[in-house]
Amino acid sequence: MQLGLKENWRQFTLLVLVNAFVGGMVGLERTVVPLVGTEEFGIGSEMIIFSFIIAFGVVKAITNLVSGVLADQLTRKKVLILGWLVGIPVPFLLGWGPAWNWIILANVLLGISQGLAWSMTVNMKIDLVGPARRGLAMGLNEAAGYGAVGITALLTGYIASSYGLRPEPFYIGIFYTAAGLIISVFLIKDTRGHAQMEAAQLKKTNADESENKPNLLWVFGETSWRNKTLFSVSQAGLINNLNDGMSWGVFPLLFASVGVGIEGIGWIKAVYPVVWGLGQVITGPLADRIGRKPLIVWGMMVQAIGHVVIGFGASFPLFTGLAGSVLLGIGTAMVYPALLAAVSDAAHPSWRASSVGVYRFWRDMGYAAGALMAGIVASFLGLTWAVHVAGLLTFCSGLLVWRKMKETWNRYYCHGFEIASHEPLFTPTPNQDD
């Protein structure tokens, strides 16, 4: 057993493929489901339509938190398989559900499935590659996932324009579920041993490191507010996904209201996650060269500019929608792998999976926060103002990271320590008897 991307490239590649299927399940909904609410079920309230995103975000966030604990207590592989099993009914509910409540139920199951399966692909890649290539690992993982989100959003848009909103666009999800489950059961190997190896190496580096493993309550507090760096990362993740949750519900309705067709909406919805996904092939390794903080700060600023372009581009909706989505994708590509890598840097391997789960809890609460914010703002001020508010929040989040976050990456970084100064980059594990 060895740490490193080269040493574990076969398993790493399989996990990239599995995460593409995981991401594709989310892509099923990006173009079609909001239009199903307005056109098929005749729903006129933005809050009711966005309820499926709120349900997805809250459930996925809570499941992320639980998945970190399960990953530390059970095996990563078992949790991954469980995620796929929970997701089996989702495409059937989306394609044939007779009422809007069935769509919400599908999103509850999808949130559980995503929280378990996507969290495990993240943790398993972190386990395999070790500390030196975390940025690259997270870039490839998220590139596969969000690239599949965008491609699937585009495919469902084309299928819906040719065959209707339901059930044909959701046939793809049946394939994703079957393929992901088969690969996870028969080809994926568990990686908890790699995390234990890294922890053992770290213990040799720092003889004073406590062997006690903290409980979830301690990890939650450390990741959420006590550690300024982890707090900065967690709030940036929340605002980043607030943007995604807002765009998920608002963009199809906003662009449909100004005359953009389903195919055009499909392109707008596809460009954002495709650029976001593929861009991480570049920004992931870049985070291992220039550090995490610059990518996070400037990524949030680029997203804020994307909101400005979309919010003030009503005269040319298709052009500004595509341009703004490209900017949102670039900014998110800069932020996403750097955030995950920063959490992985700052958390000790013995509680890293739990810390990643807490970060992903706050990050994916952003889906619910974005949908809720968009529904409230759209009800009083209109859909365009939901875009403006999201842009302002994103700008403020970037400033907060700039002021509060400490850079977690160092060119001499090795197993959680700065070799030159021997200063630990993570908070020491607490003594549980204290």
UniProtKB/TrEMBL annotation:
It is a multi-pass membrane protein. Residues 1-192, 229-434 form the Major facilitator superfamily (MFS) profile domain. Keywords: Cell membrane, Membrane, Transmembrane, Transmembrane helix, Transport. The chain crosses the membrane at residues 12-28, 48-67, 79-96, 102-122, 143-164, 170-188, 295-316, 322-343, 386-402. PROSITE patterns: MFS, SUGAR_TRANSPORT_1. It is found in: Cell membrane. Pfam families: MFS_1. The keyword Nucleus does not apply. The keyword Protein biosynthesis does not apply. SUPFAM superfamilies: MFS general substrate transporter (SSF103473). InterPro entries: MFS (IPR011701), MFS_dom (IPR020846), MFS_trans_sf (IPR036259), MFS_Transporters (IPR050171), Sugar_transporter_CS (IPR005829). It comes from the Bacteria. This is MFS transporter. It comes from Imperialibacter roseus.
